[in-house]
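## retry 2 of 3
previous attempt timed out at serialization; input unchanged, resubmitting
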Amino acid sequence: MDRPADASGGLEGTDIGAQKDRVVTEEEWLQKWEMNNIGFHKEQGHPLLQKYLDVLLNGRSGLRIFFPLCGKAVEMKWLADMGHSVVGVEVSEQALKEFFAEHSLPYCEEPVPEISGAKKLQSTSGNISLYCCSIYDLSSSIVGKFDGVWDRGALVAVNPRDRQRYASLMVTLMEKNSSYLLVTVSYDPNKHKGPPFYVPESEIKSLFGNHCEIKCLQKVDDFSDRHRQWGLDYFLEVLYVLTFAA
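## retry succeeded, writing output
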């Protein structure tokens, strides 16, 4: 089970308020999809990925790109259409099926022998493979390694006590010379319980700093009525690029 030393290690010295003990269960995430309570989904895709796509691709073609906790992110279709191979993971089978349906993409299902109860939904074109399971069940022996990652709504959705486990897994999935675009959110964690959870820059450094170079690319004011209803008075999206050198 959770090891207390690991659980608290990444959180020491960071002001994340009462969030450090917050737990959202898999069942709660499944219910969000069932109830269509998915305000986090962006129908038009994310403008920060459009703006910084070159940072992710770095002039390369035919990349393997990973979408952790992918939902039905439209950016998976964008990147596949550019000739890249996309792999995602998501606990909600409904989200994955909605992705294929909304883009009119034929797909096939198959079990994942290494993971009990898991399924892989793969486009018949073969360039989009989405795993329906817990991300923690994945490993590089199952999904391989990646040249790029788009992490939006993933690290910020992971239970705070599981962040070290998540980051450690992600590091093992990165190829040399890979680029990892990470979107976090910034707000007063004492005013909203999350998710999405507040992840301060100091924690990004403690989670990933030993493995890659970290650069903050942009901070965007994303405050909306939705955030006001949460009791917040500011809400920022913060984009980092994590560069895994050779």
